[in-house]
Specification:
Elements: H1 5-18, E1 28-31, H2 36-47, E2 53-59, H3 65-80, E3 84-89, H4 98-115, E4 121-123, H5 128-141, H6 145-148, E5 159-160, H7 168-177, H8 194-209, H9 214-243, E6 245-246, E7 250-254, H10 255-259, H11 263-278, H12 286-296, E8 302-307, E9 310-315, E10 318-322, E11 335-337, E12 342-345, E13 351-358, E14 371-372, E15 381-384, E16 390-391, E17 400-401, H13 402-408, H14 413-416, E18 420-424, E19 427-431, E20 435-436, E21 449-456
Helix pairs in contact: 2-7, 5-8, 5-9, 9-11, 11-12
C-alpha cells in the first residue's frame, strides 16, 4: 500500500480530531520503544505541533545489551527533539505469561504518571495492523462483543492511539520517506509466540486466500463493536444502580428485576455486576456468565456458583455477590449483654442495635414491638439465631421455629447468619422483624419499657 506523506498526516490528524485525543494544553506522554510504530508516533506528534511532549520508555531487560541499546536510541531521539525523557527499569519475575506481564507493567507505569499529575494522557503506537491481530487473537481465544472492540482509540484512563487508521506498511513507508531508521526487535519474528504467528502466518494466509482487505475488515469490525460497547456501557451505568445495592461486605440484587429484562441485557448486566465487584473481567468467560444466568433462572430458588474471585449466592428473591469465604463460622456466633440504654454493633459490621429505656407513662401504639421490662429485669442477652430456635410471637396463634418464619418471610440465607435475638436465659423475648414474644409486649400503662431499633449501613 502506497500512501503519500500528506495522506498520512491527514489520517493521523483526522483520528486525533475525531476522537478528541489531545485537548488544548494537554501534557502528552508518548510511549516509545524504538520500533517503527512508536518512532513514527513520536515524530508525527512533534511535527503536528502537539505538546508539551514527554518521551516514555520501558526497558524490560529481556534482550540484554539490545534492550539497553533500545533505551539509548530512544533517549537520543528525545534529546534531538528537545523533549523530556522518562524511563522505567522493569525486571521480569517468573510468571505464566511474559507478554501479559510486560503489558501490565507498561500500562501500570503510564497510568501512575497520569495519576501523579506528571502528564495528562499517554499516546501509544498501536496501528490498524495491531488492531486486526488483536481481534483475531481474541476471536480464536474466545470472546464476546466487548473483546471484538479490540484496541480502543481512547480510554477513560487516558490512553490514546493516534495511529489506528494506519497499517504497518504505511508506517514503514513514511519513515523511509523521512529518512528515519528504527530499531528492530528480533523477538517480533519469533513464531513460537501466538501473536507473531498471527502476524506472520495467519493474516498473510487470510489476505492471500480469502480477502485481500482482511486487515481493513477486522478493523471495521472492531470499530463497530467499540461503538456498540460504548452504548451498552452507558446503559449499564444507568441500569446497575437501580438493580443492586451495597450491603457493606457484598452486593445484592432482586432476581425478578433481572429476569424481567431480555436475555441479552441479563448477560450484559451480570458482566457489569462482576466487573464492578472485581474491578475487572480478567478470567471471566462465557461459561461463567451462563452459570450465573442458570442460577437466576433456577426453579429451586436457591443455590450458589463460584466464578473467579466471586461467590454468587441465590436465596429466594435475591442474589448476592461476595468474596469467597465470607460465610465462614469465624464471625457468625455472638452473645453480648444487651446495654440498656446503648448501642451494639453486630459482627457483620453493618448492623447496629440501639436501645432506649422509657420509665414514664407509656402509651401503646398499634404495631409496636416495645418490650415490657417490668417482669424481666435488665439482664438480657443479645445473640444470633441458632438452628432449633423457636418462640411464640405476640399475635400468633402458636409457637413457631425461627427457621419457619425465615421461610415464610423469605429471608435470604446469608441474612440469617447474624439475625439478632434478645433472650432471657433460654427464653426468646424478641426477634428482629418477627417481634416481641407473647406476654412481653409493652402495653399502655407499662412502667418500664425497652424501645429497640435496628439500623444497617449501606
Amino acid at each position: 500500500m502506497i500512501t503519500s506523506s500528506v495522506d498520512v498526516f491527514e489520517l493521523v490528524s483526522d483520528s486525533i480530531s475525531r476522537y478528541n485525543m489531545i485537548p488544548q494544553g494537554c501534557r502528552l506522554g508518548v510511549a516509545v520503544s524504538g520500533g517503527a510504530d512508536s518512532t513514527m508516533l513520536l515524530h508525527m506528534l512533534w511535527q503536528l505541533g502537539h505538546g508539551p511532549l514527554t518521551v516514555l520508555h520501558v526497558n524490560h531487560h529481556l534482550r540484554g545489551a539490545e534492550s539497553d541499546a533500545d533505551e539509548a536510541r530512544v533517549r537520543q531521539m528525545a534529546q534531538s527533539l528537545g523533549l523530556e525523557f522518562l524511563s522505567l527499569d522493569w525486571h521480569y519475575e517468573q510468571q505464566d505469561n511474559l507478554e501479559q506481564a510486560a503489558r501490565d507493567a507498561r500500562k501500570s507505569w503510564f497510568l501512575s504518571l497520569i495519576k501523579d499529575d506528571v502528564i495528562d494522557r499517554v499516546a501509544t503506537g498501536h496501528t490498524k495492523s495491531d488492531q486486526a491481530e488483536t481481534v483475531l487473537f481474541r476471536l480464536m481465544r474466545g470472546t464476546g462483543p466487548r473483546g471484538l472492540a479490540g484496541v480502543l482509540a481512547t480510554t477513560r484512563e487516558g490512553l490514546i492511539r493516534p495511529l489506528l487508521d494506519l497499517e504497518r506498511d504505511q508506517v514503514e513507508s513514511w519513515l523511509e520517506g523521512q529518512g528515519m531508521d528504527w530499531r528492530e526487535d528480533a523477538t517480533n519474528r519469533d513464531t513460537a509466540l501466538v501473536r507473531n504467528r498471527i502476524r506472520h502466518q495467519l493474516i498473510p494466509t487470510l489476505r492471500d486466500e480469502w480477502n485481500p482487505n482482511i486487515v481493513e475488515v477486522l478493523a471495521q469490525l472492531a470499530e463497530l463493536s467499540a461503538s456498540e460497547e460504548a452504548y451498552w456501557q452507558e446503559e449499564m451505568n444507568r441500569l446497575l444502580p437501580t438493580i443492586w445495592k451495597h450491603t457493606g461486605t457484598a452486593f445484592v440484587a432482586p432476581v425478578d428485576a433481572i429476569l424481567r429484562l431480555p436475555t441479552a441485557v441479563q448477560r450484559r448486566l451480570i458482566r457489569a455486576m462482576i466487573e464492578q465487584f472485581k474491578g475487572h473481567l480478567r478470567q471471566i468467560d462465557f461459561n461463567h456468565i451462563e452459570s450465573v444466568l442458570l442460577l437466576l433462572n433456577s426453579v429451586e430458588g436457591s443455590g450458589r456458583v463460584q466464578v473467579p474471585g466471586i461467590d454468587v449466592f441465590r436465596s429466594f428473591d435475591w442474589v448476592r455477590f461476595a468474596e469467597p469465604g465470607l460465610d465462614t463460622l469465624e464471625n457468625r456466633n455472638y452473645e453480648i449483654p444487651l446495654p440498656i440504654p446503648g448501642n451494639v454493633e453486630l459482627p457483620d459490621g453493618i448492623t447496629t442495635i440501639s436501645t432506649q429505656l422509657v420509665e414514664q407513662e407509656y402509651v401503646y401504639t398499634e404495631g409496636s414491638t416495645d418490650l415490657d421490662l417490668s417482669s424481666t429485669g435488665s439482664s438480657l442477652m443479645l445473640r444470633n439465631w441458632m438452628p432449633g430456635d423457636k418462640y411464640h410471637p405476640e399475635g400468633s396463634s402458636e409457637e413457631a421455629k425461627l427457621k419457619t418464619l425465615f421461610q415464610d418471610f423469605r429471608i435470604p440465607l446469608w441474612e440469617r447468619r447474624h439475625w439478632p435475638i434478645i433472650c432471657l436465659g433460654d427464653q426468646i423475648l424478641w426477634a428482629e422483624k418477627f417481634g416481641v414474644a407473647k406476654g412481653y409486649r409493652a402495653q399502655t400503662g407499662s412502667q418500664k419499657v425497652l424501645k429497640l431499633s435496628v439500623m444497617r449501613r449501606k
